[in-house]
Amino acid sequence: MNGRDERLKHEHIMEDEHTRDGDEYSNDHGHEHGHSHVHEHGHGHDTGEPDELKSRARALQSLLLEKELISIEAINEVLALFETEVGPMNGARVVARAWADPDFKQLLLEDANEALDEFDFEIGEQHLTVVENTPKTHNAVVCTLCSCYPWSILGLPPTWYKSPQYRSRIVREPRTVLSEFGVELGSDVEVQIWDASSEIRYMVLPQRPPETDGLDEDELVEHVTRDAMIGVERLGADV
Amino acid sequence: MNGRDERLKHEHIMEDEHTRDGDEYSNDHGHEHGHSHVHEHGHGHDTGEPDELKSRARALQSLLLEKELISIEAINEVLALFETEVGPMNGARVVARAWADPDFKQLLLEDANEALDEFDFEIGEQHLTVVENTPKTHNAVVCTLCSCYPWSILGLPPTWYKSPQYRSRIVREPRTVLSEFGVELGSDVEVQIWDASSEIRYMVLPQRPPETDGLDEDELVEHVTRDAMIGVERLGADV
Amino acid sequence: MNGVHDMGGMHGFGPVDVDDDAAFHDEWEKAVFGVEKLLRYQSIYGVDEKRHALERFDPVTYLDSSYFERWALGSETLLLETGTITEDELSAAIEAHDGSGLFELDDSETDRDRVDELVELVHEAFRSDASFERDPVEPQFDAGDAIVVRNDHPAGHTRCPRYVRRARGTIHEVQGTHVVPDEAAHGTEVAEPLYSVRFEATELWNDDTDGDAVYIDLWERYLNPADPE
Amino acid sequence: MNGVHDMGGMHGFGPVDVDDDAAFHDEWEKAVFGVEKLLRYQSIYGVDEKRHALERFDPVTYLDSSYFERWALGSETLLLETGTITEDELSAAIEAHDGSGLFELDDSETDRDRVDELVELVHEAFRSDASFERDPVEPQFDAGDAIVVRNDHPAGHTRCPRYVRRARGTIHEVQGTHVVPDEAAHGTEVAEPLYSVRFEATELWNDDTDGDAVYIDLWERYLNPADPE
Question: Which residues of A form the catalytic set?
């Protein structure tokens, strides 16, 4: 109610200032809405103040280490798996095969999990549904309630995907949001948004770009982007 | 999106810390919800840090003074009027007369503004509607969208009335909120909430307490409380 | 707009701090209050523009500021937007300001006639009645009519909160013809019939309520007949 | 709960920061991510409990924290609430902590068998498929059926956002029988038919949309037949 002070409430830790360590952030972008008073979130401002929340989390981690609930080696394994095994290259491979192989494409759209059995992705598989872009349909994925994302096939979500800006707006004004990503859709294209509210994850099968005629699966992979599989980029728009 | 830093965005003022001047607040009340991590708003914490927003507002005031858009004398007149002419004593007088005079009560409930013409309140009159508590009905007033309040008859609203806690909850769980004020209503009492979304203001006419039998209007005034006229206190509950 | 200010029915704010009872906590809040009243009596901006200025704050700023902090930020916004002050003037004032509170400032250079004029505005405001009713427009609904609230989600100002949208209610009373805030907040004056509408609490919240009814004032444009022919 | 996390359709957050593209901004975020995954593979708490822990934050905390800051606060909350750690242990750790990041800490005293066990949990998690489907329950609706979303406002966890409540939609696909998050978040496992439901954008937002349709997965308990007999 009252107050601009910025502290975490916890009975035993009560430091009075903390702002984000500015130098840990690469971007500096305020959120101006065309008026002067906006609450700027702290990207890129080196305030030199301690960040209570971060140091608090670090202390918790040291406790978890002591209790052997975590181990650095195991965490490094997790991170390595997410760096080597998981990422948009998996989704790109799936899309490329669908572009190259009509039977696979049909199976992918009907039962994505069965279609994915063809691949040897070493990932904790999620229940996946793939939705197809066509000349008359554009799909995009969101999770308005938190930030669910098809990580088993696309890796970890970009920060904008997890932002209130994207989460709040893509379901109501998708064309405006897509135009912020540089995608301008004609009024003849139906825009369908998939809000991932259950444990089922959604991925977009982009259109095959016309300039990829004659390419094989390995070559096609190079034409698939993460953003196109989320649905904030449109491939093959002129097909 | 990102950030716990707490700064006002304005192109030319970019100080990096400000928290509430703790000593300006008399109450210290966190908002615990039964879990540890709540964002505490800064009542009563003397952080010793400058409060940018407040000093910014003071600077604006000095500019307005310079431009003769305000004058301290005129502001003191405003404050004096709100201290001397406006306040719950006006509402209490109205309620007392309604308790003492059935004809006045009827007029008050049918056309409060006409009824108020009987009084010589020196106030900028608002359009008022008065709603009556009965043994079977309890009314309470709120403004969920901002904090509209029948100030011409009750003075300035208490801080809790302007709080997100009251604004968010009284329309959905009024009995629970009322119990936080110490009011316990039987299931035979209908609870009606008046959300002041237009320029019409609402005031509750409380029930006359049984112990006021035989008192005249001047004596009755003493039995009327501001909270009863907002509807978070119930007078005459046993009538 | 669907903003965080539209908080009817929200969870998560915790118990009401019933002891935080005062209107003001300090001199700063009184100064903000006095300044705001004086500006409003000069009609620099209207009440709907002021409300919308607050709603336009970043959601964190809105929720993390006190009532009078929002007032202070809101009047600054509108003084800038109306051109009453300029960014340059404001930054110069911030630079030059010595930290003193309003009531400590030297007011002696203020022109006497101007002071009298401002004081007279205050008294005039207290003498006059509120004026938001306009020439009557024939209302589409009568007391007792069943209505359903439109499910509009305008980007601008509105006084139709989310919690009543799509809900069925009954016209409790026709309130006359009032200025429509949705347009007044954006500089246009239009008047329309206004209604007090009663909603059963279970219509608003199904079983997730312990109340019985909510009454709210809604303009005609927010409403459809409950059973359109 | 009607919390600020339920932000579909809200105004006021501004343009999408399309350039803020990275998954992580720094080592701290990676550490939080790794810790969280490890705790989850140990099944100390479930995904629904985790989501609800975040929703229970004070609204300002929720909106004013980054994604990984919410993760860090959420796991702390749940580790305390599950008794996995105590308040005393945590405050002692905070007192004793020297400021070093996770990857700088000395891990050498950790029991080797335990490390192997934790690493194996990671690999096992990557080998296994997600498992949230349960024995089939006969669905009440079929693809093509018209439904209307119930207008419930539960105080606890739900995956039925406000923007679809009361809206009429069409069953796009029956998704099988899935664990209901509304109960799982509070420690009870119940499974129900889950549906992909299509809503026309104008049904959700009247004219205040530039989209065409929204698809969302909704559990059977959120739905009523559109024309109940």
Answer: 143, 146-148
